[in-house]
Amino acid sequence: MKKAFACILLLVFAMTALCACKGGTKKPEENMKGGAVVVGITQDLDSLDPHKAVAAGTREVLYNIFEGLVKPDKDGNLVPAVAASYDISADGTKYTFVLREGVKFHNGETVTADDVVYSLNRVAGRLETSDPEVQVVPAFSVISDITASKDADGKDVITVTLASPNTELIGYFTCNIIPKNYADQASKPIGTGPFKFESYKPMVGLVMVRNDDYYGTKAHLAKVTFSISESTDAAFLQLQAGNIDIFPYLTVDQAEQLKDQFKIEVGDMSLVQGLFLNNAEKPFDDVRVRKAMNYAVDKKEVLQMLNGGYGTAIGSGVYASFGLYYDKTLEEAYPHDEAKAKALLAEAGYPDGFTFTVKVPSNYVYHVQTAEVLANQLKKVGITMKIELIEWATWISDVYKGHKHVSTIVGLDSQLAPSDILKYYIGGSAKNFMNYTSDTFDAKYKEAMATADTQKKVELYHELQKCLSDDAASVFLQSPSLMVAVNKKLDGYTFYPVYVQDMSTVYFKE
């Protein structure tokens, strides 16, 4: 069943690195061990407790410190991590994990079955005393029991029993394993990853050092600092001054300016970037207006102006790297057509257009630049889009959690399961900041989660994407390219099918 399921979850990820030079012909282990690097990031971390982190920008950092029972490799496969192996029952109702022996937390304590059961129950919302700040995994609501036992060889076994079949759940067991009896996770995080926490100062940065007790391939670097800049422009100045070794959010213009000083690596950001519309607020409560927005936007121009043509223009809420689950036909669902946009606006009662405000997190220059391009495009059909720049913390509280917005531009990431990237559109969900509602979508989503038939699952996910497209739930723009500046002395930077910055593979060439 495991091989069959691997086929189900194996996403055909197009994560090609397009850099002009890939330095170093020696194997990493033949190169210099140790050294320290500085990675630039443009937002503060919203929590050091991995179960409380909301922002993708936080999770990309904590990826180096924490691990789950499984973790993704660069090709999109889910491979054993804290677990040594796993098995999924033929009917999709039981997941069995044999724990890896001798895995240690960063405080030197050995990971136990109790720690794993606690961690899973915590993110599933199954603890007797729950913490409201913990980001409960909605998909885990199907869990009816989590038990620990010993196999014939005396190894610890974790069995997760489901109330109904779900063959996608393995993608959620990347959730981080933490110590059961440890109260300082939010200030001094302890995980099992290749790096361990050393220090953190808000709006300054996080420092981590190599975990020499790591059970797997040890990191090459001795120390990594994630340095927080207030903006991409500020980080760019630090790059030019030589104070940052790696920076993963370059614009095309910045990449051009840095190409002689740094290697420029290009891959897929594995995000759905969109102009997300609040379906419960006027004028976007009218599907004709939402469709007009889609026809008014020229996605190819967005790609060309912001990415130099890199990236993929998408037509629904799933990004292109999801392989067979991605419906490529929807890319052409709303071709750029200003005349059709104007006709729909007139039909909806807006012959002269209208004015609305888009809230954009100011620390993401890419989203800010996207807003500027879209504002010019929408003006051509009579729509005035006012851009309101807000701090990331405000975006989380007001837009994501409070749904207090008419529209926003942001990128959505996900676990390695198509249900995870589509969870934002479930009716009544707290994560549904677009306030999208569709009984058809909700019913098909439940059916897709329950079926164990691969082909049926693919068909249902295509139908779900078509629901979002037909309803013009938002303006789905692109799966953006990721341009990364890397110090020419470094090699091993790796792109993943999830939004992470894996520093364990990076090393100095000489």
Question: Separation of termini?
Answer: 45 Å
Largest sheet: 6 strands, mixed
CATH superfamily of the largest domain: Dipeptide-binding Protein, Domain 3
Residues in β-strands, percent: 15-25%
Q: Report the oligomer.
A: single chain
Overall CATH architecture of the largest domain: Roll
* Count of runs of 4 or more consecutive helical residues: 13
Strand order of the largest sheet: 14-18-13-17-15-16
Number of domains as seen in the coordinates: 2
Shape: globular
Computed CA radius of gyration, to the nearest angstrom: 23 Å
Please report the first level of CATH classification, the CATH class of the largest domain.
Answer: Alpha Beta
What average pLDDT do the residues reach?
Answer: 90
- The low-confidence runs, each spanning 5 or more residues with pLDDT under 50, are 1-31
Q: Structural class, from helix and strand content?
A: alpha+beta
The helical percent reads: 25-40%
The overall strand count is 21
- Please name the CATH topology of the largest domain: Dipeptide-binding Protein, domain 3
